């Protein structure tokens, strides 16, 4: 089977991370904020400012951040679990008490005023995707429900699969046909946004097949169900749903795996099927009720609610997770990509952010950066 494209949009895994109970943190020993201020004014102000505000994009604000988190992250730089050359050098020579004092100092500074964050532009992949999807409406329908026989619907389709499919047309791995004229080199962010937009739309069942016999196809569908899901509703982000899809398209696509279209799993399963078998199985899938890809959130706010379980300062005052509201946007983007790409360790955050596409990361970061810091 083709290697799945990692780092795309496997939201279902992301949400699985939410079943972890937030762990309340223990009390820190007494710290001396005044002693911390002396070190901060000497060693940290060039980058984090006297007021704890990052002096340039991608330098985090420290003012009003949770004390325990600040201490933990400083210790991680010192121990080499987080890499940043300047911070590693500085913390190397510091005692644990120094780190505690620094954490106490920065956590007591007033959070950075919201006026400065109000103009962070919030980008929503869903809205951007909708704009980009207008170019596809003529054939695939405005909401991804096509009415043209032979043209697949995209509404409710698995987002990871959509991205892969569009890339296959781009790369020439799939015969373009009608898709040719409509494809231009869209950047990755736009592509993922479009996929998220289509995935979050409600799919409408297409016309029943004018060929084949759904009843006769049902037993044969058993060998497809392991990957494509019960009744053709896929629960795997990289495997397309087939339920209620256009019959003509399904037939053409299935047969294509016997000849031109490449996919190790698919080729193996359809190689031995005759035309009649395929027609019956396809007729069966076309007759099933489609269902949108599971757990594709339809707004950034809905997604952020999952993060606030641990990150919201009011809801979880004892958590060791950092506050994010009002944080520097570029820094948040960098941090999330670092977890996702395995460059920053945190088992919790890794589980949360591994599946996030650049479009979602951009959107979450801009949303949090635009919220007033408290
Ligand atoms: C040369 C610029 C520079 C200096 C000086 C500097 N920092 Fe930083 N600091 C950064 C950057 C850049 C990051 C983000 C690094 C990363 O991605 O891990 C950071 C991250 C941090 C973090 C993690 C914040 C978070 O939200 O995860 C803490 C805590 C921190 N610095 C504290 C300090 C302290 C305390 C000092 C002084 C002893 C200091 N820094 C000096 C540039 C600097
Ligand atoms: C001129 C009509 C037309 C336009 C415009 C068009 N498409 Fe298509 N699209 C098709 C047809 C026809 C197919 C089936 C092609 C095939 O058999 O491989 C298809 C297939 C696809 C598939 C594969 C679906 C699957 O289930 O594998 C995706 C994804 C897709 N199009 C996305 C898009 C996007 C995104 C746009 C807008 C940027 C777009 N299309 C614009 C006609 C069109
Ligand atoms: C081993 C897992 C697996 C099995 C079993 C399997 N498929 Fe697939 N199928 C996939 C994957 C993965 C893709 C996407 C491949 C790609 O990107 O071309 C796919 C794609 C398809 C497509 C293209 C859908 C589209 O929107 O373009 C059709 C149609 C299809 N399968 C039908 C079937 C049928 C019918 C069977 C049973 C005879 C079957 N599959 C069995 C994994 C499987
Ligand atoms: C189960 C609790 C939990 C959930 C849910 C959670 N996080 Fe985290 N997050 C943490 C912890 C703990 C850390 C500190 C990890 C470390 O030290 O690297 C963290 C760190 C971060 C950081 C680094 C911030 C900084 O200042 O360096 C970012 C960014 C972040 N999370 C974003 C998110 C987003 C976005 C979501 C929702 C999609 C989310 N988190 C959901 C617990 C959680």
Give a written overview of the molecule:
This protein has 374 residues and is mainly alpha-helical. Among the domains are: 80 residues, Cytochrome Bc1 Complex, Chain D, domain 2 (Orthogonal Bundle); 162 residues, Cytochrome Bc1 Complex, Chain D, domain 2 (Orthogonal Bundle), CATH 1.10.760.10. Helix 3 crosses helix 4. It is elongated. One heme C (HEC) binds next to helix 2, helix 3 and helix 4. The site of one heme C (HEC) has 21 residues, from helix 2, helix 3 and helix 4.
At a glance:
The chain is mostly helical and 374 residues long. The chain has helices spanning 11-16, 33-48, 67-79, 85-92, 96-108, 125-133, 137-140, 159-171, 179-182, 188-199, 214-217, 222-228, 247-256, 264-270, 275-286, 300-311, 329-340, 347-353, 358-369. Among the domains are: 31-110, Cytochrome c-like domain (Cytochrome Bc1 Complex, Chain D, domain 2, Orthogonal Bundle); 125-286, Cytochrome c-like domain (Cytochrome Bc1 Complex, Chain D, domain 2), CATH 1.10.760.
Q: Could you list some keywords that capture this structure?
A:
374 residues; mainly alpha; Cytochrome Bc1 Complex, Chain D, domain 2; 19 helices; 48% helix; binds heme C
CATH hierarchy, class of the domain at 125-286: Mainly Alpha
Q: Give the helix/strand class.
A: mainly alpha
Proportion of strand residues: under 5%
CATH domain fold name of the domain at 125-286: Cytochrome Bc1 Complex, Chain D, domain 2
Ligand set: heme C
Mean pLDDT: 83
Secondary-structure element string: HHHHHHHHHHHHHHHHHHH
Low-confidence stretches: 1-25
CATH architecture of the domain at 125-286: Orthogonal Bundle
Give the fraction of residues assigned to helices.
40-55%
What is the total tally of β strands?
Answer: 0
Tally the helices: 19
Give the termini distance in whole angstroms.
49 Å
């Amino acid at each position: 089977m083709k290697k799945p494209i990692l780092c795309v949009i496997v939201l279902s895994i992301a949400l699985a991370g939410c079943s972890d109970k937030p762990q309340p943190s223990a009390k820190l020993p007494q710290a001396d904020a005044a002693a911390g201020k002396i070190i901060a004014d000497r060693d940290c102000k060039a980058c984090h400012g006297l007021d704890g505000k990052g002096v340039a994009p991608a330098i985090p604000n420290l003012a009003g951040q949770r004390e325990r988190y600040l201490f933990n992250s400083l210790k991680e730089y010192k121990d080499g679990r987080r890499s940043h050359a300047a911070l590693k050098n500085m913390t190397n020579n510091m005692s644990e008490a120094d780190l505690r004092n620094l954490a106490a100092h920065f956590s007591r500074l007033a959070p950075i005023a919201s006026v400065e964050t109000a103009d962070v532009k919030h980008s929503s992949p869903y809205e951007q995707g909708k704009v980009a999807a207008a170019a596809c409406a003529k054939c695939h329908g405005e909401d991804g429900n096509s009415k043209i026989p032979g043209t697949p619907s995209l509404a409710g389709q698995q987002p990871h699969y959509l991205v892969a499919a569009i890339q296959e047309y781009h790369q020439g791995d799939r015969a373009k046909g009608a898709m040719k004229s409509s494809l231009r080199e869209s950047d990755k962010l736009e592509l993922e946004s479009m996929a998220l937009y289509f995935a979050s739309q409600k799919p409408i069942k297409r016309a029943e097949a004018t060929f084949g016999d759904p009843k006769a196809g049902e037993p044969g569908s058993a060998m497809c169900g392991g990957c494509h899901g019960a009744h053709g509703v896929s629960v795997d982000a990289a495997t397309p749903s087939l339920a209620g899809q256009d019959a003509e398209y399904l037939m053409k696509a299935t047969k294509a795996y016997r000849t031109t279209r490449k996919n190790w799993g698919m080729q193996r399963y359809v190689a031995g099927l005759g035309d009649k078998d395929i027609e019956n199985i396809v007729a069966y899938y076309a007759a099933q009720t489609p269902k949108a890809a599971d757990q594709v959130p339809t707004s950034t706010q809905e997604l952020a609610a999952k993060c606030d379980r641990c990150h919201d300062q009011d809801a979880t005052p004892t958590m060791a997770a950092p506050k994010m509201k009002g944080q520097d946007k570029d820094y948040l983007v960098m941090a999330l990509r670092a977890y996702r790409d395995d460059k920053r360790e945190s088992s919790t955050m890794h589980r949360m952010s591994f599946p996030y596409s650049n479009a979602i990361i951009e959107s979450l970061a801009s949303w949090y950066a635009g919220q007033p810091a408290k």
